[in-house]
Structures are given as structure tokens and as C-alpha cells.
Amino acid sequence: MTAAEVIGAVADRPHLDATAPAGTLRASAVLVAIADGHDGAEVLLTRRSESLNSHRGEISFPGGRVDAGETFEAAALREAHEEVALDPSAVQLGGRLDPISTLVSRSFIVPVVGSVGAQPELRPAQEEVDRIMWVPLVELTRGDTFREEIWPVDDQRRPMFFFELDDETIWGATARMLHQLLRVALGIDGPEPPAL
């Protein structure tokens, strides 16, 4: 699958309302940047710095808080530029995935999907990012990469997704958004399970 095919699948789908539910502490946006690599479409991910106060050392998309008066798209592009020096003009926006809300941090996250023509030269913001990586989507679909656990949360049983790469584990909100991206890219219909 190519980056253009992934972007096309995202662009062709209806979008859910991006209004944060009551009780949300912060509205955020992430950039799901897609580029073609040797094994087809690849997605840009980062490992958050160990010096951060929250989610330290976790794998994530570039992104963060939406500033007052800012669109989700503008926030995603700004944060990607701040975190990995991705030039906003190099990104062709293609649409959004469905927003997710997290129960623990009470964040409302809008995943903004865009493509870059080639993998640009990136630089990590030392205070925020320890590692930048391009992960082939085909690697995320291998049988030995994905696993699901059921966790009890608020008297309910909810699925928690994990992608076990050779040297990193992706879980939490990032894994949920990757799961959704793969479902859209592969044409798998149906709603996503409730988020954690």
C-alpha cells in the first residue's frame, strides 16, 4: 500500500464531529504523517523524551495542545514543526481520523493525516523527543506485532492495543490511532472499540 492509497482512504471517509465532550481537560491534535518508503507507506512516530513530565519514553505521533483560536490542522502542523522540524509546507493534508478521548488524562485528540512527498530530513527537539522513526505500515500488520488485552476500567472491560516492534512498544492512545489508521487504510468497516 502506498502513501497516496492511505491518504485516499482517509479522505474518502466521513468525519465525526470534533467537539470535545464535557469534562475534557485539554484539546489536542497529532500529525499522522505518511510517506512512501522501501516497504510501502510508512508513518512518522517519535519516542518522547525521558525528561518530560508525562508520557515520558512513550511512542507517539508529533502533536500537542491546541492553542486558542487554532484549528486542529494548524496545531498538528505547528507541533510537528516544533518537535521534529517538519516543515509545514512539506505536508499535504488529507483528512482526519476519528477523534479519541482518553479516560486517564481526559484529553480529546484529533488525528490529522497528511502525506509528505519523501521522507524529509528531521531533527528532534532535544527537550521533547529522544527518537524519530518511520515505521512501515506493513510491519504493523504482521501477526507477531499486534496484540490486544482487555483491561477493566470503570466497571467495564475495554480493549487495549499494543504494537510490539523489534525495539519499541506502542500502546495507549497512539496504538488506538494506529489501529484506526490501519482499519481505514485496509478498508475494514465498523466502529472502533471504546477508547481507554
What do you see in this structure?
About 20% of the residues lie in helices and about 35% in strands. The protein is of the alpha+beta class and about 200 residues long. It has a domain at about 5-15 and about 20-135: Nucleoside Triphosphate Pyrophosphohydrolase (Alpha-Beta Complex), CATH 3.90.79.10. The strands form 2 sheets. Strands 1, 2, 3, 4, 5, 6, 7 and 8 form an 8-stranded mixed sheet that branches. Strands 9-10-11 form a 3-stranded antiparallel sheet. Strand 1 (about 25-35) and strand 2 form a beta hairpin.
Total strands: the figure is 11
Major β-sheet annotation? 8 strands, mixed
SSE order, as H and E? HEEEEHEEEEHEEEH
Uncertain segments of ≥5 residues (pLDDT<50)?
none
Residue share in helix: 10-25%
Characteristic key phrases:
Nucleoside Triphosphate Pyrophosphohydrolase; globular; 196 residues; eight-stranded mixed beta sheet; three-stranded antiparallel beta sheet; alpha+beta
